[in-house]
Structure formats: structure tokens, C-alpha cells
Amino acid sequence: MLDFYRRLYRTIRPSSGDGDEVRADGGVVSDGPATGPPTEPDRDATARLKAALDRRFGSDFMESSIFWLPPFLLMGLFVYGAVIWNLLISLTDYQRFENAPDYSDLDFEMYTRALADSGFIDAAVNTLILLIAFTAGTLAVGLVLAILIDRGIRFENSFRTIYLLPMSLSFVVTAQFWLWIYNYNNGIANSVIGTFGLGPVSWLGNQDIVLYAVIFALMWQFSGYAMVVYLAGLRAIPREHYEAAKVDGASTLKMYWRVIIPQLKGATISAAVVLMVFGMKAFDFLYSLSGGYRPPNGADILATKMVREAYANLNWAYGSAIAIVLFGMALSVIGPYLVYEYRRDNL
Amino acid sequence: MSDSEPRTDGGATTIGRLRRNLDRMTVEGAGLYVVLVFAAAFYLVPIESGLVTSFKTGTAIIQTAPFAPPGPSGLTFEKWQTAIDTLLRGMGNSLLYAVPATVISAFVGSITAYGLTIPTWKKSYKAVVLMLIIAGIFIPYQAVLVPLTQFWSQWAQLDQVLSFVWALGIDDDYVGIVELVITHVAYGIPICTLLFRTYYKTMSDEMIESARLDGATLRRVYRRIVLPLSGPMFAVVLIYQFTQIWNDLLFTLVIVSTESSPAAPVVLILAGLGSSLEGQDFALRMAGAFFAALPTLAVYIFFGEEFAEGVAA
Asked: Transmembrane ranges (chain A) (predicted)?
């Protein structure tokens, strides 16, 4: 029975149509594009509209819209509506205790102000350093851990659980731990390098070091995540590839470098995108580290500067302009990623 | 590796088995375990050091190593007492928005993903909707903060709409909790939808197809077939969302803003805990950090598998 309909569906399906996944369902047979709209004379306008929409978008478009459209609109309002609104505010001079921005006078003053603000340039540079160093470092550590764990070891689950544990903690919580570790007099960091005869180092007080200390702490928190993603990627590689490399006499190191790691491209890309986003959200960590809007000197990033300008200095429009720059940075990473996933039919 | 070889020692004694395992253990294998144990220590030491420090007196903090447990003379529960006293109301407030926001966003994500996966409509249009939704996961929230503040403070006068609630004697700062629920649901829709969609894509078509052929509406298919099969994914999404919402500081900072507010969530109070003019009270900070992390730690310990699945998707 089902097969009959499926065959029927395939034969009547227009060959040029870019319909959805092949799915033979009743709706297509009764009022799908191929059979044409039902021609009952007493249909009212809304029904005709519905039929027209269904013809344009696919057979279940109208009936399914009640499921996805309201949440989509809510999300669209809060995400895209807010981003557009934010763009508008960034073009005004909105500041202080004015009740609402004055939208009658729009210009790019806030953006020129940002370019002339050395604090903004520093924050932008720090953001880039943080994103690149944090993402690359975390991916490397995660890959090594995943390869080690994938070698058929005992207690695999226990190790995995331990490595992923920091990720379940809030930035606010982990910031407290690292504040203690980086403490000048009693912290672990200084006692560890002290055994090698180095230090003590003022990890959070030295402007040249603090950003890397923060990156290290973030790597601690998220390398377990990279490990989980890589582990899933490794498990998807057929065993024969390992065996073929072994037969060819490749050393273990060479096998991973030449054969296995190139196949982890997909895992690397998706993990890198997520990590970069986490990096841009490092605001929570830096805020908790100093207990206020001003992060330790030398660790200011765009995310913290934006919130500080808007909520501490009440420069709302300036904060919005910084936010738009941050959004642009995020978009330059996400946009290509989404296109890549769409091309791979992975959406 | 030792455990991949066939076992022939069914009734062997523990010592015998241990010896055989040791014999099979190569230098390389031993090195592997050493590295793994070192890595485990690296991940655990910050947490362990925080835990022991939270039980130390002021002098014990200076005299003992940061990762060593306090001696009997340096042991105190006073910091935990203070931390619990300070943070308990925050825990209640956090639960008040984290639980509803988690449940609602998981449910909404499920129906959104269903509407975008199972029904048939043109793929190219679907892809646009999906792209917009998925891009929503990666938006830096800074880009929506100022409008969000404007929206809640100037446009949506929720505190006036809810005036009947304040008449009952509830502090009107609790409007922040309602705003947090709506905000977290709206920004949680993208990730919940994506998680459910990856699950629904792998769902077997057979049953859904035949139900549709029998004339079942989409609503009926969802209620009778898809929803009952979504249990495992609901576990994943609920755990992921709860952890995210509980841990988030940015929205609470912007919407509730002050830690002295009666509606202040736990993360907001914790961020300012233990710092005073005299210096930082690390034992108190650590106790507070652990207390605030208890719910997410409990979730992680009991549902680690689901958590891993959620983050890996």
C-alpha cells in the first residue's frame, strides 16, 4: 500500500521541482503541485490564498506554519529586530538619562569616535588575539585528548567525564577558581612555577600577561568540549583507514597527521565556530574576575567594553556602535560557516 | 590494548588477572595512562583546590598549600555558613526563572523543529528559515543588549501589567524574573530547535508517512507519534538549557542589574561576593562558587551522558 503511493508520488512529482526530501505523504497526492489545486467553486478567498501559498512553498506549508512560525517570529523579533534596532541606536547620540534615543538625527559619529578611541582599538586587538589563541589552543588540546582517549583505553568514560566537567560550570564560578589560582601570594600558578625556580608572577596584574592567563583559563574550561566533538569525528572514521595506514608501514604519528586529522575537517570547523562564539562571550568571566565592569588592565575585550560604555558610563549609542562591530566580527565567522553547512546539506 | 584481547581467564584470581594485565602493559600503554591521569589532574586541581580552600580558616589559607586539605586546626564551616546565608535567596530566584524558561524553551524548540523537519515544503525556503534560526545561536548578545533594555524598560510596561501581582505583597522587582523567563525563552529557541531537528531528521519516516496517508493532521502526528518518541532528546535539551540559563550572567546583569535587589539571581550575587575594601576573602568566594554551582554539578554528575550529547550537537 505504502509502496504504491510512494511510486505514484515519484511518477507524478515534477522533475524540476526542488521539493523536500522524498517523502510520500497524503497531502502531496491530494493537493500537491503536480495534481494542481482542487477546483471547488465555492472556495472562499482565504482557502484560495492557502492553496496559492501551498503551491508556492510546498504542500504542508500552511498547515505546518502554526508549529514553526510563532516561535520563529518571537525569535526573529528578539534577535534580528533587536540587532536592527541596535544599529539604529548606534547612529543616534543617545546617552545618559535620556528616556529614548532621538532618531531624527542619524550619523556615523559613534563609529568615527570608536576609531579615534585607543581603548576601542586595544579592545578590538585583544578580542582578535583572544579568539585566535583561545580557539587554536583549545582545538589542539581537545584533539590530543580525543586521540589519546580513542585508543581503546580503560575507564574511558571516567576520563571523558572529568575532562568535560569544567564546561558544566558557570563563568562566574570558574572565575572564582582562577582568581584563587592566579593569586600572587598563595596561588597554585605561582607555586607550580616556583618549583622550577621561576616567578612569582603577577598573573592578573601584569598587562602583558593577563590576557594569556585568561586564555589559559578559558582553554581549561572548554578543551573538554573540543575533545567531545573530535571524539565523535574520530568514531566516524572507518577502522580500515587505520589498518591501511599500518599496513603501509606508517608510524603512529604519521598515520594521524596524514590520514586521520585531514578527515576531521568537519569536526574542526564546527568546533572552531562554537569556540569563537564562546570566546566572544568571555564577558561573564572577565566581569566576575574583577567583580565589576572594568576587567583587569590589559584584558579589555569588545564584549566588556561595550557593556561598560553602555551600562556604567551610560553612553548608550557608543555602546551600541561597539556592539555592531562585535556583531560584524561574529557574522564574518558564522556566515561562511552556515553557507558551508548548507552546501554540505547539513542544515 | 589489554581489554580488546579475548578473555580466557574466567575464573582467575584478581591478583592473577592483575599480573597478566601488567605483563601485557607496554611502555607505550603505561605512558598513555600517565598522560591521561596528568590531564585529569589538570582539570580537577582548580576545582579541588577551590573545595579545600572553602573549608580553611584565614591562617590556614596562608600556611597550607592551596591544594592541600586544611589541618584539624584550620578547618571551618563558617565560610559555607556565610555563603549559604548570602546566596540562598539568589538560588531561589535563579530557580524561579531557570526552571520555567528551560521547560518552555525545550517545548517550543520541539514544535519548531517538528514544523521545520517532518512536514513537506520547499527545501530552499526551509533553508532560509533554518539559517536565520541557526545564526541566532551564534549572535553575540552584546548586539541586542541596549534594545533589550529599551524594550523592557520603556516599551513593554510589564510591571504595570502585573500590578495585580504586586498587590499581593510580592516585591515589584520580581518583574525582572518574568522578563528573564521571556528573554531566555526567546534566545533559547534557536539552540533547542537545532538540537531537536538533528534528532527528528533521523526519525524513521515509515510510521509518520502511513499516519499521514490515513489522513492524520500534522498536529495529531506530533502528539501521537513524534512527541512520545522525543523523550531522550528532551532530556538532552532540558539539561543543556538548564545549565546555560543557570550559568548566564549577562542577561541577569542587564535586566535585574543590582545584587541588592530582592530578585537578584545567584550568579549576580556571587560575582560580587567576597571582595571588600580589606581584600579578598578567598575561602568565602570558593564556598560561594561551590554552592552556586551545586545544581549544575548535580545535573552533570547524574546526566553526564546527556550533557555531552547536548554540547556535541
From this structure: 66-88, 128-149, 161-181, 209-234, 255-278, 316-340
